[in-house]
Amino acid sequence: MHAPTFVDVWQLLDDADRARLAEIDETQSEILTFLRTTPIEDVDAPMFSELQVERLRVYRGALERAGAAEEGATASDDEAASA
Q: Rounded CA gap, 44 and 49, in Å?
């Protein structure tokens, strides 16, 4: 098994995944814009790692769905071959 590339995973994302990634990007952009103009002590924002974990969760979900679909197709092929 090889480690999936960004291109591999991007092809597996559905519309909901892409919308969630856009939300994460927007949140990160808003935080960075806010930090440029506000003293850091006054900021109550999610940790960078929290945003990255959420992004990873979206990618893993897409990979898991693809793996489940692939396993289902393989099982169907095996059943058809044994019939």
A: 14
Element (H, E) at 15: helix 15-37
Q: What is the pLDDT of residues 3-36, one digit of tens each?
A: 888 898 999 999 999 999 999 999 999 888 887 8
C-alpha 73: how far from chain center: 23
Q: What pTM did the predictor assign?
A: 0.71
SS3 46: coil
Q: Which of 41, 50, 45 is nearest to 31 (CA)?
A: 45
Q: Which amino acid is at 82?
A: S
Looking from the CA of 72 toward its CB, the CA atoms found within 13 Å total: 6
Q: In whole angstroms, what is the distance from residue 52 CA to residue 69 CA? A: 26
Residue 64: helix, strand or coil by DSSP?
A: helix
Closest-CA residue to 46 (of 65, 23, 12): 23
